[in-house]
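hi! just following up on the protien thing from before. the input was this:
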Amino acid sequence: MKFLIKIFAILMLLISPVFAITFDVLVLPADLLIEKENYYNFDEVSEIIANDIIIDFNKSNGKIKSPDLYEVRKKLNKNQELKKTVSDLLIKYRNTNKLDYDAIKTAGDAFSCKSVLIVSSYAVTNKNSLKRSVWEVLNISSAFDISYPYRLETSVVLLDTVNNLVMWSNNYSTKLGANDNIFAAKNYAQANAELEKIKLYSKSVVAPSSSQNIMLRFFPKAIRPIEKKYEDPNGGALRYERTLPENPKDKIKQENIPYSGDMIYGI
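and the predicted 3d structure came back as:
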């Protein structure tokens, strides 16, 4: 009888459904509710990066889910009070880097998300620290033949709305324009070329690094990242240094160390 009970218990374990944990993250680019006023009608950089991060999240086999920006805008436009709350918190963060936790919790609750990710990007020069839209800078540089060395700065911060704390944050930076400090566009084709460079920077550096770090925050045992310095040889706007995890299996075998899986980088 005891043997049959054991067999029954094992069968129940084998056939019982496994419920995977899913984390819902609301991604908010700082320029989400800003009307496109740039001459080229390009998306702002924070929105480009946010979109790429959302795509990475939704490719995580259900581990992390995130509503796309179309859904977010659609819901905000139906609720003017919520829209103002989100707009005010994004403006405050974009201008001062200060977080309004009450407003962030309100936004997260509206989308049934206990985590909120804010993405902010802007261009600065070595002459001053004035934050400007990348496309505003491109327009000014083109009109007045200005050749300051411009940099694209991006901050990404993940917030826990339950405990009102920052779970993870990181800053990314890359040079804009060519090696001779020229960041200008005399026509649409040149402007679009700069847009493509920024899109590539987002897809190859900021989005994968951010999404992987956030994945490690939610699933710290999933991977044991090993820091690897990588310098892109392309030059210009695509020249950067980054640290991304490489496959740890070979190193673990060589050094004969246990696979702990709990190292988190970029924090």
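The domain at 19-222 is CATH 3.40.50 (Rossmann fold).
Helices lie at 2-15, 45-57, 69-78, 80-96, 101-110, 134-144, 188-218, 249-255.
cheers
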